[in-house]
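Researcher: I'm preparing a figure for a lab meeting and need a structural model of a single chain. I don't have an experimental structure, so a prediction will have to do for now. The sequence is pasted below. Please return the structure as tokens so I can convert it later.
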Amino acid sequence: MLDDGEREKRGAIIESCLEMNRLGINQGTSGNISVRHGDGLLITPTSLPYDRLEPEDVVFLSPDGTPEGRHRPSSEWHFHLDIMRERPDVNAIVHAHPTYCTILAIMGLEIPPIHYMVAVAGGSNVRCAPYAIFGSKELSQNAVKALEGRQACLLEHHGAIAVGASLPKAMWLAVEVETLARQYHGCLPFGAPPLLSEEQIGAVIEKMAGYGHQG
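Model: Understood. Here is the structure written out token by token.
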């Protein structure tokens, strides 16, 4: 029997999955979402249509990766678990295959400081983690490294990850990173765009600290 708090978290995961598709930052069931819960996490099940999910379908993962529930967890459970293990500041993870983030990731490109909003991801760029097959420990290790000092990263030939102190913040950031990717993609036909400096991005991060953007 789920208590009210856990049922609310599971419901928020399902609603956020549906919202990803409504916003166009994901397609089908290719994305996955997790939320920290107790000493483990709650994560979307693998391969089930979002519009058919019930709170009981969301899977609990213990700290050692043992699943509890009626379904298998997302195939990407490794990086969800490892990111939360390495990052106590992270309480929610959104992974999706947004079109423009994925275009850049296919090309192995990071998002450089083309716009001051790059700072919301925690630094002067959104890194692109090297390719590894989906669901692998290697991909998890690459993602954890790319997220050092960051709140988001791209995954080469794959998609994007956004993390946050809460699920709404992680969702907000996922949309912002896709917007940045679209802006960068739009600049590239004109040549290498001018970039903001480390100092300029640092000033933005400092100014935003009290605005609640940093997750």
